[in-house]
Amino acid sequence: MQFDIAFALSTVPSILSAIGMTLLVAAVSCVGASAVGFGLELIRRSGGPGGLFVRFLIDFIRATPVLVWLYCLYFILPFYGIRLGALATGMIGLSLYYSGYLAEVFKAGIDAIPKGQAEAARALGLGRMDMTVFVIAPQMLRNIAAPMGNYFVSILKATPYLAVLAVPEMLGRAFDIASDTYRYAEPLTVAGLIFLGLALLISLAIKRLEIRLLGPTAR
Amino acid sequence: MIRTDSTLAVQITSLNKWYGAFHVLKEVNLTIPSGSRVVICGPSGSGKSTLIRCLNGLEAYQQGTVTLGTVRLGDNARETALARRQTGMVFQNFNLFPHLTVLSNCTLALRRVLGMPRAEAESLARHFLEKVRIPEQADKYPAQLSGGQQQRVAIARALCMNPRLMLFDEPTSALDPEMVKEVLDVMTGLAQEGMTMICVTHEMGFAREVADQIVFMDQGSIVEQASPMTFFSTPTHPRAQSFLHTLLH
Ligand SMILES: Nc1ncnc2c1ncn2[C@@H]1O[C@H](COP(=O)(O)OP(=O)(O)OP(=O)(O)O)[C@@H](O)[C@H]1O
Ligand SMILES: [Mg+2]
Q1: ipTM for the complex?
Q2: Is the CB of A128 inside 8 Å of chain B's CB atoms?
Q3: Is the Cβ–Cβ distance between A153 and A199 less than 8 Å?
């Protein structure tokens, strides 16, 4: 069976119509994973029993396949009376899973900030919260724009896992077309190329952000 | 007994601090009246930085008391925070916030800690930038300034909070020689206006000219405390004698 370019092109509109779902899942998961990951890292840094627990949790998250998280959330939570829709479950699953990785990235980003920055903030009387928001976080972002962008691309590429929960994202749509027409190469290639395009866009955006962050303020 | 005389800027009583098993501050007693200029010197590792960092809560200590004005640190969380806020600190490495402009470096604490409106904070910041003689750099980032300019911004940033006490930890040690003077000039100006200052420095010219008390530390203890005249002409402790000898030759 030859690769049929005309057929491939004909699948584009249908696959593209699911791009909104893919982007929604990816965007929410990126924000969710960053927020949870940053929170986890702050708790880990604060030490104490909470910090110890989070340290364990982060290692645990990173040692588990993402599918296990999705299945657990989707099939086990309802036993305890918690019923989330497939979409919400998927986004929460990806957020929690990648929060473990992002926490590690944030750790590296904070560790790279000279100790004197926090000391200067404290000497000026800034509270913990203000110091975190106005002194630590902006410098951390500057340090980690590139690795953070890589994880955002990973999250984008992980959205097809939500197919196991029947969330209608792009790769799922491509498979639907494939099983209807018995032609796999074309729809999967199209989906793959769209993913590639999106990943390139994210990388480009991060590059630009990095250049802006580093601009005239570079140390 | 703890005196809480408001004409005293700082009272340190029987201060002891350990890093693990290492006894870094040993029975330090020091009384600093308001308006005085104290220079702390001594060999590397003698505990100078540690001592002044105990004064604004950057270091914890295990024994003794530190009283700033009328507030004994640690007694009351609110008062302690207030006393610390009224203590400005200038670091060897400036520690300016690299992601903020000079002006924002100066206004951050005014706005977040004192809740001052932006316009008011900025005009206050510009006033102090003028005072350290770099008003024209307000919109630049720290990395665009020379070391001496950065240190003067750091001084302006601390002054914005209207401190009653200024701590300097080797403020000119990281500077190229030609920039040392511009920073010392600003510090001398502050002293002339009556600011209470504690400076860790090896700039003996500055000490001789500006200080009214020299404190010499060795291995965690204050081993000599004298007026500059006495300290430079007739140091009594052998370590102080050899320290001065190496500095002057
Ligand atoms: N966080 C720390 N943990 C363990 N030991 C420390 C720590 N900070 C400082 N010290 C030790 O305490 C001693 C005093 O240090 P401090 O920085 O106060 O000295 P200093 O007089 O300021 O020296 P310098 O002139 O080199 O700045 C040194 O021996 C130093 O190694
Ligand atoms: Mg020191």
Answers
A1: 0.92
A2: no
A3: yes
